[in-house]
Amino acid sequence: MNKYYVIVPGALLLVFLGFERNFEKKRLLEEHIRTEVAAAVSALEEEERYNQQRAAQRDAEKRAAETAAQRDRTLLATYLSVADIERLRDNRLEILVQQSAVTREYISNLRERESRLIADVQRFRPYSPKPTAPAVPDHLAEEMVNTVNGLQVYQEELAKNTTEQTRLREEFDADINRFKELKGIK
């Protein structure tokens, strides 16, 4: 028995719309899959970054622990008592204090020199009230510049020295406390 199918134009439109809906569903599904894959890749990358940061942190902690252990061994091998550490600290501080005293003396001398130069410069133009006063000689201007620059350099050195003294005290205080801790001294 032969069957004949008659396709009515409206039914053809329904078949076409069905294909179009399936195509749209497929496109939406592919878009959803792309979004999910991108989110999964992003999550994996974030997890990898986190793991790398944790590994770097563990490595840093391990190095810090190794450094601290080495410092402890050195402390115990170098000093026999707290008095030894204090003696070395006092010797080093004394050197810095003496350097500081010498630097202060240089600064004092440079200030005196600067005062004399300022007094000398007052006789010359543009500092002299006399209109016929000669210009400041080059050697005097150069000496003034050198003196001011020297003052600046020595004041910076004095500040560095003071900072170094503070750092040295803190470092030795930490060493003394750690030595006491390691030796069980109160």
Task: Describe it.
It contains three helices and no strands. It starts with 8 loop residues before the first helix and ends with a helix. It is flat, with a radius of gyration of 42 Å. The protein has helices at residues 9-78, 82-121, 138-183. The chain folds into two domains: 1-78; 80-186. 84% of the residues lie in helices and 0% in strands. The protein is mainly alpha-helical.
Strand content: under 5%
For the CA atoms, what is the radius of gyration?
42 Å
Largest sheet: none
Distance from N terminus to C terminus (CA atoms, Å) equals 112 Å
Query: How would you state the average pLDDT, rounded?
Result: 85
Domain count: the total is 2
- Run of helices and strands: HHH
Q: Which shape, going by the Cα principal axes?
A: flat
Which range best describes the helical content: under 10%, 10-25%, 25-40%, 40-55%, 55-70% or over 70%?
A: over 70%
Structural class: mainly alpha
